[in-house]
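Please, structure for the following, as tokens.
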Amino acid sequence: MEDCPKSLCEEAARDQRKQMLGREHMKPLKDFVEKIRKERGCKEQVPDFDPLDGGINAECLFVLEAPGPKAVKSGFISRNNPDESAKNFFECNQEAGIPRERTITWNIVPWYIGSNGKIRPAKSGDIEPGLGYLLELIALLQKLRIIVLIGRKAQRVKVDLSKNGTHAIIECYHPSPMYINRDKSNKGKIIDALRRVAKELAGQEAGVTL
């Protein structure tokens, strides 16, 4: 299976990943997503986790703001979605040297909060219920050691997460084109934060506390 930026623009690639959702590392997460859809009364507006990530074996959880139109269309929260933010995230992770299979990606608001193909900013009324689901997700990830809050909206729950666990929490800028294209050094700031993640994961693999 080709793992490259924007590969989920292809229907065959999307179908292939849907078939992977029943795998052992994904089944509890598929059930979790179905629970949210049922409780929120929505279906495709809550995309699935990407089975190319680590699933319930993930040691690092990336938390962004909310799924965009491309994630809703593909059906996955994925660095392979056909949009520029996902492409930037894919490339920054590669440059930082983070093994994808040790990570998982989610949003503080797991459902689509836009209309007519355009997402709106997340509000407190979105983030508060989203936090409850995020805490449920964290409980499912028994190997989790690091949480990376990407963007200001996700970072609003840092204090809550600090009170509810012992995970390392790292803040990172959002890889949107608006941010990355604003200044040549901005992409480097994201990569620097992700290199901290890579260093932390490398230390865990060696049995070292950083």
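The domain at 7-205 is CATH 3.40.470.10 (Uracil-DNA Glycosylase, subunit E). The longest strand covers residues 60-64.
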